[in-house]
Amino acid sequence: MQLKRDVCGRKTASVPLRQDGLTLLETLASVVVLAIFSTVLLMVLSSFLFYEHLSVQEQQASMLANQQFTVMAQQGALVTLNTTEPKTLMYDGTTYHLSLLNLTSTEPRYANGLVDVEVTVSWVTTFRGTDVTERVTLKQLFTR
Questions:
Q1: Full-model pTM
Q2: Under a CB-based contact definition with an 8 Å cutoff, are residues 65 and 98 in contact?
Q3: Out of 7, 84, 104, 122, which residue is the most buried by the measure of CB atoms under 10 Å away?
Q4: Which tens digits make up the pLDDT trace of 84-119?
Q5: Distance from chain centroid for Cα 118
């Protein structure tokens, strides 16, 4: 502590002003910034994980559709179309709905002797509490 004389000649003690630590306002502002940053980071990670999981589901749906094409190639496309009803399959905890559609009737005359088949695989997934229906549709041309 230093003693100084003011303008009137009185002795006054001057204490150097020194700030140790943060004020309450600075602490609250840093907490708010950290909370906003953490929330944004969690939302980005949540979206990343959702789209990664959706990608896996799309690959599984494509695999199921291609398996159906393999069955149709072995048994004949028309036989499979006439005897197969829409299917519900459970794969890795996800329920997939598989349906077949014969597109041949919409083809022009030059496609005689060919069977155009569409396989649609759909499923329901959840993103941020909302159910979302996803769909994969593949088409393939078979000979009768």
A1: 0.69
A2: yes
A3: 104
A4: 789 899 988 899 999 998 877 655 555 667 888 899
A5: 25
Strand order in the sheet with 114-127: 87-91, 94-102, 114-127, 130-143
Q: What is the residue type of 73?
A: A
Please name the residue that has the structure tokens 């959706």.
Answer: 54
The domain segmentation of the chain, as residue ranges, is 23-143
Please spell the DSSP secondary structure of 45-70, one letter per residue.
Answer: HHHHHHHHHHHHHHHHHHHHHHHHHH
Q: How many Cβ atoms sit within 10 Å of the Cβ of residue 121? A: 26
Residue with tokens 């695989």: 121
**DSSP code at position 86:** P
pLDDT at residue 111 in the model: 61
CA pair distance 138, 86, nearest whole angstrom: 15
Helix ranges restricted to H, the chain: 24-75, 77-83
> Using CA atoms, how far apart are residues 114 and 77, in angstroms rounded to an integer?
9
